[in-house]
């Protein structure tokens, strides 16, 4: 069976849920759930508890996802300079059929300790309406998805999965995929900027892009409302696009380090984008 797009996200979430592996959608498809612009096709990203990364990888491999030929993830060409973004713990290759020139996209698995480290550990089950941290892609608070021009099938991502993984395609449209709620997604991304700004340019550029997408496409256009942030985080959100936002990020980083809230930054790739640590 060939599977693509948002249905493929639902298949992945359902496979992990059935394997008792808590998970949350991340990056591009998470942004699109909030109403942020995203042009398909794109990579697919999920977060799982660190202790279950290997189990998640084995579950998806058994379903038919294509493994990377490289023995180390950092050697995969997708994660070489100048590509932005955090290198995943595990990943799979997703082919795009009939695109010229041919291109490979990726299913990326991240551990929670390096992404949503301020959240309690992910659990199974649907979050309640009043959950502080999570919601689902079927939540009534999310904007109605506007029907877009049908994609040329040749531009879609496909994975050849076994029938057991695919099951009923109609139910996939209704499947509830866990995502951070908007307020906590913004909070988490500001924390990631505090961790990686000036330390890891590849990661920080991606966190900035995600925050900017949420600001301009979801919040400023009125597609989503959010509850507001803790004051010291709100200051950064309000100045996100200003010239001196980095000064506010560094000031908050010092506070968070004193409070032992912020983990060490991720080591950057050794390439022309590398920046010296600021101590």
Word description of this protein:
β5 and β6 form a beta hairpin. Strands 1, 2, 3, 4, 5, 6 and 8 form a seven-stranded mixed β-sheet that branches. The chain has a two-stranded antiparallel ribbon with strand order 7-9. α6 packs across α9 and α8 runs antiparallel to α9. It folds into two domains: 179 residues; 77 residues, no CATH class. By secondary structure, it is α+β, with helices and mostly antiparallel strands.
User: What's the quaternary structure here?
Assistant: single chain
Strand element count: 9
The SSE string, one letter per element, is: EHEHEHEEEEEHHEHHHH
Which class of secondary structure composition applies to the elements? Answer: alpha+beta
Helix content: 25-40%
Q: Beta-strand level of the residues, as a percent range?
A: 5-15%
Q: How far apart lie the N and C ends? A: 51 Å
Low-confidence stretches: 146-158, 274-279
Rg over C-alpha atoms, rounded to the nearest angstrom: 19 Å
Mean pLDDT: 83
Largest sheet: 7 strands, mixed
Assign an overall shape.
globular
By DSSP (H or I, 4+ residues per run), the number of helices equals: 9
Number of domains: 2
What can be said about this structure in brief?
By secondary structure, the chain is α+β, with helices and mostly antiparallel strands. The protein has 9 helices and 9 strands.
Summarize the helices and strands and which ones pair or pack.
Elements: E1 2-3, H1 5-18, E2 24-26, H2 28-33, E3 44-48, H3 53-63, E4 66-67, E5 90-96, E6 104-111, E7 134-136, E8 157-160, H4 163-166, H5 169-172, E9 178-180, H6 182-196, H7 201-219, H8 231-238, H9 245-258
Parallel strand pairs: 3-6
Antiparallel strand pairs: 1-8, 2-3, 4-5, 5-6, 5-8, 7-9
Helix pairs in contact: 6-7, 6-9, 8-9
């Amino acid at each position: 069976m060939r599977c693509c797009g948002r249905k493929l996200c639902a298949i992945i979430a359902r496979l992990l849920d059935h394997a008792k592996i808590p998970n949350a959608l991340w990056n591009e498809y998470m942004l699109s759930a909030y109403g942020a612009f995203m042009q398909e096709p794109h990579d697919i990203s999920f977060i799982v508890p660190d202790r279950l990364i290997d189990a998640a990888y084995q579950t998806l491999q058994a379903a038919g996802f294509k493994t990377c030929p490289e023995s180390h993830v950092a050697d995969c060409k997708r994660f070489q300079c100048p590509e932005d973004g955090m290198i995943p713990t595990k990943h799979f290759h997703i082919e795009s059929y009939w695109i010229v020139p041919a291109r490979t996209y990726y299913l990326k698995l991240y551990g929670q300790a390096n992404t949503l480290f301020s959240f309690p550990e992910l659990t199974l089950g649907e979050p309640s309406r009043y959950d502080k941290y999570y919601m689902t892609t079927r939540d009534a608070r999310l904007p109605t998805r506007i029907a877009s021009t049908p994609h040329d099938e040749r531009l879609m991502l496909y994975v050849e999965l076994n029938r057991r993984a695919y099951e009923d395609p109609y139910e996939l449209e209704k499947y509830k995929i866990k995502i951070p709620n908007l307020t906590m997604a913004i909070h988490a991304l500001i924390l990631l900027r505090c961790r990686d700004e000036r330390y890891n340019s590849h990661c920080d550029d991606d966190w900035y892009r995600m925050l900017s997408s949420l600001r301009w496409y979801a919040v400023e256009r009125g597609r989503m409302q959010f509850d507001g942030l803790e004051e010291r985080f709100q200051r950064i959100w309000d100045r996100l696009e200003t010239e001196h936002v980095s000064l506010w990020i560094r000031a908050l980083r010092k506070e968070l380090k004193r409070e032992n809230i912020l983990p060490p930054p991720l080591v950057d790739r050794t390439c022309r984008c590398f920046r010296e640590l600021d101590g």
